[in-house]
Amino acid sequence: MSGLARLTPAGFEVAWEQLGLGALPYPLDLEPHGRTRAERERIVADVLADLERGGLARRGRVDADVEDALRLLAQPDSAFTVLGLVDVEAGELVRALAAERRGFTVLAVRRDDAVTLDVRRGGSPAATAVGVLPHRPPGPGRTVTVRASALATGGPAHRDDEVRAARAVLAGPIVGTGHVAALGGRSVTWIDTPHGRYAADGTDWITVAPADRAGMVARITRN
Prior knowledge:
- By secondary structure, this protein is of the alpha+beta class.
- The chain has 2 domains: 2-130, no CATH class; 144-220, no CATH class.
- The chain has helices at 9-18, 37-53, 64-74, 125-130, 148-153, 160-171, 213-220; strands at residues 2-7, 57-58, 61-62, 78-87, 92-101, 104-111, 114-121, 144-147, 176-182, 187-193, 196-201, 205-210.
- α1 (9-18) packs across α2 (37-53).
- The longest helix is centred in the N-terminal third of the chain and has 17 residues, at 37-53.
- The two termini are 27 Å apart.
- It is found in: Cytoplasm.
- Pfam families: ESX-1_EspG.
- It comes from Saccharothrix violaceirubra.
- Belongs to the EspG family.
């Protein structure tokens, strides 16, 4: 993965608008900077000047490589999103989009006050997205599948041992959690505990499984 650019949130939003790419993509969507037209014009001018100083724009136009990356994010062949807390105690939120088209993958990650852009040729956009998460081993135990109602209400349980196992994972302590989702497709929740990671998916029936990064990729790309 090759580091392409590091932008402020305002820099990312302004560059996106300057290229006429439409609505910002989830989960990188940001409120437009500037409440009035005059304030907006000042912010755009300041951002473009800052991008030029950083070598990311020239004469008011975004750098060609950055432009290509943003256009790929806007119109991918496939894409995967990440949104969640990688560190619950610290409140560390991560938002990421890994988008692929014609063999190139662009990864955009927003943390705190920066949006980073990275590009690579080849590889899996799903693996690229999951790679944003901290490395953790699979948690102990086995895969269990239970009715969602058994977890939500504590009512009659399907296979009591499986329900107890699923509840034990969901009861915590949870040190990190969030969602990885295929654009227009499957969504998988990651649950990090002090003992390892679990993946959970499903609606009426919930499957909770020990999963490292490879396990997360397998679940999010499963047909």
